[in-house]
Write a structure and sequence with these properties.
The protein is mainly alpha-helical and about 90 residues long. It contains four helices and two strands; from the N terminus they run αααββα.
């Protein structure tokens, strides 16, 4: 039987392993609370280049980076943070 290889430095969505309930949770975040799409993608890009990313999870805090990055009031858990609270107007 062929073993499925998992990309350790990828996001859940890139591995095709985004749990449906996690995806629907992100989609349910109100527009007032959600990070704008361009900033969300920028945050995920920063996370992908971080040594603390492992299979979509941040090793610094244990969160799924795709969820943490989706909230405009969240910031990277590292000190100093690699990305901060989004103050951009909607």
């Amino acid at each position: 039987m062929e073993e499925k290889r998992v990309c350790k430095k990828c996001l859940l969505r890139e591995n095709g392993e985004m749990p449906p309930d996690l995806e629907s949770y992100i989609e349910s975040i109100s527009l007032d609370d959600r990070t704008p799409d361009d900033e969300y993608e920028r945050r995920l890009s920063v996370c992908k280049s971080c040594a603390n990313l492992l299979e979509g999870t941040c090793l610094a805090c244990g969160c799924y980076v795709e969820v943490r990055a989706a909230f405009r009031v969240k910031k990277c858990p590292l000190f100093p943070p690699r990305w901060t609270i989004c103050t951009e107007d909607l």
